[in-house]
Amino acid sequence: MTEVSVTKDAKPAADDLVVLKGVNKHFGALHVLQDIDLTIARGEVVVVIGPSGSGKSTLCRTINRLETIDSGAISIDGKPLPQEGKELARLRADVGMVFQSFNLFAHKTVLENVMLGQVKVRKTAKAEAEQKARELLDRVGVGSQADKYPAQLSGGQQQRVAIARALAMGPKVMLFDEPTSALDPEMINEVLEVMQQLARDGMTMVVVTHEMGFARSAANRVVFMADGRIVEEAVPDQFFSNPRSDRAKDFLSKILKH
Ligand SMILES: Nc1ncnc2c1ncn2[C@@H]1O[C@H](COP(=O)(O)OP(=O)(O)OP(=O)(O)O)[C@@H](O)[C@H]1O
Ligand SMILES: [Mg+2]
């Protein structure tokens, strides 16, 4: 297999950006996150994989406080997650999130979608926000679509706009929760390529995905979850060629067959 030349073995210097310590969360009787300890260094790309229902999305959502936690602690760049108000809005800007569904504002143009948060949350002047939005739209390859509405774009284009919108906030870390799983096969690569480039540019990323090619070539580390726990963590080569746990072996044998 040809590996894209990402410096995946050269881990950035010890500089912790996202730290989860002893995190627990329940949904009623379901213990969905169990004693999660996870530290993500600045510039690191972590791919989270695991069976359906293992808690991957919930883990992502706790990092930008879309879900609260029952116990433990989460900090971003040395600061505990804020509870509410302006601080929370700023956290959401610092922690960009891209979901499976694109969540663009349907009644705003592509350009307006990418400008909005900059103006409202970051208080960037309109002209500057527009310039940045156009640059980012060019960077993700949809610059010519700026004046269209989301529904006029393909799924892959919409997802790239969603990435540009998150990047426009100048996030410290980007969370991706299965960003390509709602896309037609021919559109998956154009989104993965944008993510590959982001990884190469040094963005700190947490990526939930079933795209094992992306995990192999872009990730510094693979985190395998099952039943609300982190069962195994390893560099991709090691994880894919020599998984230690039975859960991971079983999971890989199922998904690599497809
Ligand atoms: N808001 C909620 N209320 C109650 N239960 C929830 C809620 N959100 C998630 N769950 C449950 O928590 C568990 C973990 O869900 P989560 O979405 O984090 O899993 P996942 O690993 O992302 O799965 P998938 O691969 O299917 O996306 C599942 O059993 C799910 O049904
Ligand atoms: Mg999920």
Automatic annotation (TrEMBL):
The keyword DNA-binding does not apply. Residues 18-252 form the ABC transporter domain. It is found in: Cell membrane. One of its GO terms (molecular function) is ATP binding. Gene3D superfamilies: P-loop containing nucleotide triphosphate hydrolases. Pfam families: ABC_tran. CDD domains: ABC_HisP_GlnQ. It is a peripheral membrane protein. The keyword Flavoprotein does not apply. Its main location: membrane. PROSITE patterns: ABC_TRANSPORTER_1 (PS00211), ABC_TRANSPORTER_2 (PS50893). Keywords: Amino-acid transport, ATP-binding, Cell membrane, Membrane, Nucleotide-binding, Transport. Belongs to the ABC transporter superfamily. PANTHER family: AMINO ACID IMPORT ATP-BINDING PROTEIN, GLUTAMATE_ASPARTATE IMPORT ATP-BINDING PROTEIN GLTL. This is Arginine ABC transporter ATP-binding protein.
